Amino acid sequence: MTARRDIEVITERIRQRSKAGRERYLSRIAEASNRTANRSVLSCGNLAHGFAVCSPSEKLALGADKVPNLGIITSYNDMLSAHQPFETFPALIKEAAREAGGIAQVAGGVPAMCDGVTQGQPGMELSLFSRDVIAMAAAIGLSHNMFDAAVYLGVCDKIVPGLVIAALTFGHLPAVFIPAGPMTTGLPNDEKAKVRQLYAEGKAGRAELLEAESKSYHGPGTCTFYGTANSNQMLMEIMGLHTPGASFVNPGTPLRDALTREATKRALAITALGNAYTPVGRMIDERSFVNGVVGLHATGGSTNHTIHLIAMAAAAGIALTWQDISDLSEAVPLLARVYPNGLADVNHFHAAGGLGFLIRELLDEGVLHEDVQTVWGEGLRPYAVEAKLGADGAVLREASPRASGDEKVLAPFNKAFQATGGLKVLAGNLGHAVIKTSAVKPERRIIEAPAKVFDSQQGLNDAFKAGTLTGDFIAVIRFQGPKANGMPELHKLTTVLGILQDRGQRVALVTDGRMSGASGKVPAAIHVTPEAVEDGPIARIHDGDIIRLDADAGTLEVLVPGTEFALRRTAEVDLIGNEFGFGRELFAGFRQLVGRADHGASAFDTA
Q1: Which H/E stretch holds residue 257?
Q2: 404 found inside a domain
Q3: What is the pLDDT of residues 480-521, one digit of tens each?
Q4: What are the angstrom distances between the C-alpha of 394 and each of 96, 260, 502, 569?
Q5: To bridge 301 with a disulfide, which of 67, 144, 231, 503 should be the other Cys (CB 3.0-4.6 Å)?
Q6: 167, 197, 218 - which closes a domain
Q7: Domain limits at 576?
Q8: Same domain for 129 and 16
Q9: 176 forms bridges with which residues in the sheet?
Q10: Which helix (DSSP H) or strand (DSSP E) does residue 258 occupy?
């Protein structure tokens, strides 16, 4: 089955735009596969170093190049809840590999930082760049050329995009992504948000706030709201890089372990040593990325992926643009209400039918490409399932239920929450920007109000404490782009602006920085490009200028006569304070090399 015509038209546009780059990419991975993608090219000294700690039988098998060797790239650390479960995965993977007649080795580890820990802190200025560091770290692990396939253990914000870039760079190798799953449900997200607002207003103390946060983030697994981490898992499944039904099974459960074992054996089954060779660089194509964007819109996913998807696609020689993402938004309805665009968390979403239900609904309506290749084989239809634990301890899959378990959380196609997707691209005389509309009430999606201009999120928070944020206004926070300071998430603005909106003020945000993947109820035009430090128009806005943000029409304009606006001097800010401390001095090269947000904000050229 092919996708609906409007989806096909956008896909074909991407295919034609990408033709030259994609051909170069496929030629490179074909050459890698033919000439260097096996241990036989290694000298005896090379090989001896590579299997020095293996058992005698493993050395014999690896030396003869008779069995597949699986490289494990892991983001394990035991400080962060999403990554702590990966501690036990390598042993499980090695055992499963032996059962399947293969071998597995930990090829390398990659850093995994948590935006939740670094929000509002200097370390957040390393966050976006960590994606490219992760890609490079994974490449170092795989550069030993000891492996016939790789499995990638990653979950959160920049980790999965970085791992995908690495996997596609080593596109001659099969790649299977193995998630750890979300933590069990804790304090409801809306209750946590209320305590945050009370704290910001001085009506609750630090003890009450810490108690609420600790009840919300309380154990192993990803945070349960639908931010970037859980959007990552959706993407990996709908793009066919997970095994079916793997994304949202809690850590530490028999089913989670069974899925990990199964993924290991599947990775070994699709190497060039068998009959189902599935190199990831050929498997993932333009249709796969369109499916990912469709999933992002249908679930109201993270705005961060308007950056990451472009960088990921570029690693496969595919030129995806914001315009493609915006046009797909018009074709895809919103089918999920998960916090922050609803009260449910990702566990409720999974219980209501989860990705299996969502994928089937989208496939049946022709909004997804069914005729893609996945790590599971041909076609996306096998992903319209629910994974369960069989009596023998193996994974059992059943067809996804025809009815949603809770239509307030997961709607059928004919009862969509809104006719268009949860993300929108804005354009106008301020450049281009992205807005997440799924959590913003329709009556708040258009605002025309005077600007209040700040050059840091702390400046706005100080103004809030001083009581000067009165009346309707649009907050402009600039010099927060990739080249300025690494494009940190400005999550600390969420609570303050939410309080003012709840008081009856009409407020919005315009920034060249990022918001959290949990961007919420306040309209926020983010990722404004060109950024201020590159003489973008956002740097010429003055206090009191009238700005019009229209998320329905997709426009972002400053209502100043064109000649007057063009003649204004660009504001300048001393960014020396963002260049040192907490490792920021080590990332000066990244700030110099990084591209624009709408080009993927990458510090290297993968085309």
Answers
A1: helix 254-269
A2: no
A3: 999 999 999 998 888 899 999 999 999 999 999 998 756 678
A4: 12, 10, 50, 66
A5: 231
A6: 218
A7: 424-599
A8: yes
A9: 151
A10: helix 254-269
Same domain, 529 and 590: yes
Same domain? For 357 and 235 the reply is yes
- Establish if 15 belongs to a structural domain: yes
Of 365, 399, 433, the domain-final residue? 399
Q: Please give the mean pLDDT across all residues of the chain.
A: 93
User: Is 252 in a helix, a strand, or coil?
Assistant: coil
Q: What's the pLDDT tens digit per position in 63-100?
A: 877 789 999 999 999 999 999 999 999 999 999 999 99
User: 214 and 251 in one domain?
Assistant: no
Residues 249 and 141 in one domain: yes
Q: What is the 3-state secondary structure (H, E, C) of 468-492?
A: CCCCCEEEEECCCCHHHHCCCECCH
263: enclosing H helix or E strand: helix 254-269
Residues 268-303 as b or e (16 or more Cβ within 10 Å = b):
bbbbbbeeebbbbbbbbbbbbbbbbbbbbbbbbbbb
Binding site per annotation, positions: 156, 223
Q: Give whole-number Cα distances, 307 to 4, 291, 304, 507, 540, in Å.
A: 26, 16, 6, 25, 24
Count of domains forming the chain: 3
The predicted model gives 134-163 an average pLDDT of 96
Annotated binding site for [4Fe-4S] cluster: 156, 223
Residues 6+ away with beta carbon under 8 Å from 101: 67, 268
**Rounded distance, CA 536 to CA 111, Å?**
32
Mean pLDDT of all residues in 208-216 = 84
SS3 (DSSP) at 8: helix
**Residue 33: which H helix or E strand, with range?**
helix 5-35
**Is residue 386 located within the same domain as residue 533?**
no
Q: Which pLDDT band, with edges at 50, 70 and 90, does 588 fall under? A: very high
Tokens matching residue 495 = 């609570």
What CA–CA distance (Å, rounded) separates 432 from 31?
Answer: 39
497 occurs within a structural domain: yes
Residues 462, 578 within the same domain:
yes
Does 380 share its domain with 510?
no
CATH code for the domain of 488: 3.50.30.80
Lowest mean pLDDT among 261-265, 358-362, 435-439, 531-535: 435-439
C-alpha–C-alpha distance, residues 162 and 353, integer Å: 29
Say if 44 falls within a structural domain: no
Q: What is the largest CA-CA distance in the chain?
A: 77
- Phi, psi values for residue 399, rounded to 5°: -60, 140
